Amino acid sequence: MKKEKLISQFDPNGVGLDNGNFIGLPFDEKLAEIVLLPVPWDVTVSFQEGTSTGPQNILDCSSQLDLMDPLVPDAWKIGLHVRQPDKMILKKNRQLRPIAKSYITFLERGGKIEDDETQKNNLNSLNNECNQLRKWVKKQTGKLLDKGKLVGLVGGDHSTPLGFLQTLSKRHKSFGVLQIDAHFDLRKAYEGFTYSHASIFYNALKINNLSSLVQVGIRDYCESEAAFAERQKKITAFYNHNIQAEKFGGKTWEEICEAIIAPLPKKVYISFDIDGLLPALCPNTGTPVPGGLSFDEALYLIQKVVESGRKIIGFDLCEVAGIGNDWDGNVGARIAYRLSNLMWFSNQKNKKQTR
């Protein structure tokens, strides 16, 4: 069936359909302009597990959303499709997570990897499997981009987008990343995991075409990460305590957003770790931290990115709590929808400007 006919037959004001699609929308992957790729993976998480089923939780809770987007008229007509989480990836995650948990417990109790051959072998195996996941993400996102789709990634933990960033680097000579997060994620192979959730941007900075990294809401970090960020010319960090001090001192959020956006180039990738928000909005995420942005502050910041004339070339939404945590899924679904709509709108806006 053609897209136009599906649109004519769909009632955006009706009951939220439980049809297996995001928000009950009628579009399959072929007809969709935007495709969200779930990556159900949380093997290396160091605190609370469960975000591997975050993508399914978002999908399940999305039927409660209404379709009106005040910033993007008729947004539901764009064509948004979320793939079902890959069963093989989810199965592999279930197999590996207990091994990783045992290894992490070993370290936390003072164990030395060089003294334990079993744990050394476990670490090597886990690193290999995480690398295979990175390759899978790189391949899947590449295929979608080759089909002309706008792509968002839904994790899982925050290690999952690295392959996507590497794919984008093959298609864009220069792009920046706007990271909303409680954490720097700049640790080198945290706990021995090359592709740890806490190492995503240490790894991403090795991508030559990634020209700038703007980190917003940072409030839980170690001294070495802060020193590393200070040394890196590509990094501009907006610490949560500084943001709040500026607000308390009378600066408007709009003024702060303008300063955040200024270092970003024309093309921007949004990396949205849900723990960048106030914990009341994501109470069951993997590593919740007091403080953070409100829902409206985060979306206003992304809105200002689009209004500045910059183009969103992709995004990820990670660390949303898994099945059974409906509130987390509700918030995550709303962010995924607004991110998708604003990404599409920024691309349309740039098309018009270049005509």
Structural class: alpha/beta
Helical percentage: 40-55%
Count of alpha/pi helices: 11
What is the makeup of the main sheet? Answer: 8 strands, parallel
CATH architecture: 3-Layer(aba) Sandwich
The CATH topology corresponds to Arginase, Chain A
Total separate domains:
1
Largest beta sheet: strand ordering: 2-1-3-8-7-4-5-6
Average per-residue pLDDT, rounded, comes to: 96
Number of strands: 8
Contiguous uncertain segments of 5+ residues: none
Amino- and carboxy-terminal Cα gap: 31 Å
**So what's the overall shape?**
globular
Q: Quick one: CATH class?
A: Alpha Beta
Write down the Rg: 20 Å
What order do the helices and strands follow?
A: HEHEHHEHEHEHEHHEHEH
Relative strand content: 5-15%
* The CATH superfamily title: Ureohydrolase domain
Describe the structure.
- The structure is a single chain.
- The chain has eleven helices and eight strands.
- It is an alpha/beta fold and 355 residues long.
- The chain has a single domain (18-353), classed as 3-Layer(aba) Sandwich (Arginase, Chain A).
- The chain has an eight-stranded parallel β-sheet, with helices on both faces.
- Helix 10 (295-307) links the parallel strand 7 (267-273) and strand 8 (311-318).
- Helix 3 runs antiparallel to helix 4, helix 9 crosses helix 10 and helix 10 packs parallel to helix 11.
List the helices and strands and how they pair.
Elements: H1 3-9, E1 34-39, H2 54-61, E2 80-82, H3 87-108, H4 117-146, E3 150-155, H5 162-169, E4 175-180, H6 200-204, E5 210-218, H7 223-231, E6 235-239, H8 240-248, H9 253-261, E7 267-273, H10 295-307, E8 311-318, H11 326-353
Parallel strand pairs: 1-2, 1-3, 3-8, 4-5, 4-7, 5-6, 7-8
